[in-house]
Design goal:
alpha/beta, Rossmann fold, 2 domains, four-stranded parallel sheet, two-stranded antiparallel sheet, 38% helix, elongated, SAM-dependent_MTases_sf, methyltransferase activity, methyltransferase
Length: 274
């Protein structure tokens, strides 16, 4: 509770695209994203033509609702939703259901700090849809159940509304581990001057293990060795979630993990004191 007796509300950080219409605005500097929207257009058209089952809601459906998650300020979002609407129209026409074509409503979503003023001021005047803004992070609940018919998102899903630790904590974390290459190890020994290298091999311990070294085993080994130093810096409350997330990532790349582990990964050096 705050000193005023009112419960404090946590505000999520958000990083919207630059608003307005100035030199550095997203409105004037999103050509790359526009190309990506156009590249995806053909795929979206084909999927709508092949997969959208309009007979399951015709003629009862009166409003076809489209949401664009991470819409920013335009104009890319307008191109994307226009493409979708045209594809849906063609689908109705191909099924002989032009007379049952519903009204279209587009729900433009982005963080509350997004420049919705610029977005709505630049809406196409001849748009074939009703428009509404839905502020908030799409990583949370935004819409009623079963209320959307098509959801679009482009160059937005990579943004997290909340990742779990602060950027300052990450920047100040130093893991005292370094794996030198054979050349680096040779240079270090020579610069020290106290030893000569009798032999140096790059071994592959994974090649001696019969079973697959999967993501779970990798997670357990890292947690056993690193949990202490991570907990000391970030706090123990994040540990379970951190390694659960790590396991999900390693499972995605288990084949590459096994391949890398069976290659040379352990430096064996025999030194002789001069």
């Amino acid at each position: 509770m705050s000193s005023s007796g009112k419960e404090e509300v946590a505000v999520m950080e958000s990083y919207p695209m630059n608003g307005g219409d100035g030199t550095f605005s997203y409105n004037k500097n999103s050509n790359f994203q526009r190309v990506a929207t156009n590249v995806a257009r053909e795929t979206i058209n084909e999927v709508i033509a092949e997969k959208l089952d309009i007979k399951q809601f015709s003629p009862a459906l009166t409003t076809f609702q489209i949401a664009d998650l991470g819409c920013s300020v335009g104009p890319n979002t307008f191109l994307a939703v226009q493409n979708i609407i045209e594809a849906v129209r063609r689908k109705y026409e191909s099924q002989g259901l032009s007379s049952q074509l519903p009204d279209f409503q587009v729900l433009f979503n982005d963080h509350a700090s997004n420049d919705f003023n610029t977005l709505f001021a630049s809406l196409p005047s001849d748009r074939p849809y009703c428009a509404a803004g839905v502020p908030g992070s799409f990583h949370g609940r935004l819409f009623p159940k079963a209320s959307l018919h098509f959801v679009h998102s482009s160059y937005a899903l990579q943004w997290l509304c909340k990742g779990i630790i602060s950027e300052a904590q990450v920047d100040s974390f130093n893991l005292p581990v370094y794996a030198p290459s054979p050349d680096e190890m040779t240079a270090l020994v020579e610069s020290n001057g106290c030893f000569s290298i009798e032999r140096m091999d790059l071994a592959a311990p994974g090649s001696k293990i019969d079973v697959s070294f999967g993501g779970h085993a990798c997670m357990l080994h890292l947690r056993a060795g690193m949990e202490g130093i991570i907990s000391k810096h970030f706090g123990s409350e994040i540990i379970d979630d951190l390694f659960d997330r790590f396991l999900e990532k390693t499972n995605e790349f288990s084949d590459r993990l096994n391949s890398a582990y069976r290659q040379g990964s352990q430096l064996v050096a025999i030194l002789k004191r001069k």
